[in-house]
Amino acid sequence: QVQLVESGGGLVQPGGSLRLSCAASRSIFSISVMGWYRQAPGKERELVADISNPGNTNYADSVKGRFTISRDNVKNTAYLQMNSLKPEDTAVYYCNAFTGRSNYWGQGTQVTVSS
Is the per-residue pLDDT at 83 higher than 80? Predict the structure, then answer.
């Protein structure tokens, strides 16, 4: 069952930008925190950024100043604006939604930064 749908990934040159979207099913009720994680080949999945319902944000040190997370509670959607992309940002990006009761994961969207 698809409950989180990610989109916006693709191939971009270094220094470019991408905007990822994560649309959560309306059946996922009362999401308290939404986050973006990423996993590169041979590496552990890591937190990129997350955002709570009141709007508090948290970023990995590696993306601070370059990435911005936001959310639209009406649409049950989270976004990740990625600027000044670097080759080391290449990974599969996963959306996560936490309700206090359950954790939900998307299937991932590929981001490749290469010239």
Answer: yes
DSSP state of 88: G
| CA distances in angstroms from 109 to 10, 32, 34, 54, 89, listed in the order given | 8, 22, 16, 26, 13
User: Residue 89's closest CA among 65, 109, 107, 63?
Assistant: 63
Q: How far apart are CA 49 and CA 82, in angstroms?
A: 11
Contact (Cβ atoms closer than 8 angstroms) between residue 69 and residue 60: no
Query: Which class for 36: exposed (0-12), middle (13-18), buried (19 or more C-beta within 10 A)?
Result: buried
Q: Is the pLDDT of residue 110 over 70?
A: yes
Flag whether pLDDT at 1 surpasses 80: no
Q: What is the dihedral of CA 57, 110, 82, 23, to 10 degrees?
A: -50
**Res. 73 pLDDT band, cuts 50 70 90:** confident
Q: Quick check: helix, strand or coil at residue 56?
A: coil
